[in-house]
């Protein structure tokens, strides 16, 4: 999967947002909060922690929330002027609850320590967690492309 193509498309969106909100000196802080919110929404849709519920995960909604998380990660790569988004191999747990707790911990570090390695680990964790719940990388990347198209349309319509 070539994540750099998706990253390039997302950079174009970021550029539009930077121009539109160039006077917003809190954009970075807002995106830190957005990442935490999106991870929470993804966890909620995955239903992986809802021991009290028998409802199945809704794949399309979960993919959309995962794409939201990834798009925010791509914002941070762009913020850091990273040239290439890299898939790396980490020794992540097979326990999804441990993974979700770890990704929340990492995301809270960004506000005080925006670092390429942290963002790379979050990005890779998101894809890994998606795999743990049965979503493959192709589906995840397609959801990201769909999300970019949705954002482009929203911008055209003055959302």
Under the CATH scheme, the architecture is: Orthogonal Bundle
SSE topology string: HHHHHH
- Overall CATH class: Mainly Alpha
CATH superfamily: Type II deoxyuridine triphosphatase
Mean pLDDT: 92
Gyration radius, rounded: 15 Å
Number of strands: 0
Structural domains: how many: 1
Secondary structure: helix percent: 55-70%
Oligomer category? single chain
Strand content: under 5%
Distance, first to last CA:
31 Å
Largest sheet: none
Polypeptide structure, described:
The protein is mostly helical and 159 residues long. The protein has one domain (3-156): Orthogonal Bundle (all-alpha NTP pyrophosphatase fold), CATH 1.10.4010. It contains six helices and no strands. Helix 1 packs across helix 3, helix 2 packs antiparallel against helix 3 and helix 2 (27-46) runs antiparallel to helix 4. The protein is globular, with a radius of gyration of 15 Å.
Summary of the model, kept short:
The chain has 159 residues and is mostly helical. It has helices at 3-20, 27-46, 59-79, 96-109, 116-132, 137-156. The two termini are 31 Å apart.
Secondary structure: elements and pairs:
Blueprint: H1 3-20, H2 27-46, H3 59-79, H4 96-109, H5 116-132, H6 137-156
Helix pairs in contact: 1-3, 1-6, 2-3, 2-4, 3-5, 3-6, 4-5
Sum up the structure in keywords.
6 helices, mainly alpha, about 160 residues, globular, all-alpha NTP pyrophosphatase fold, single chain
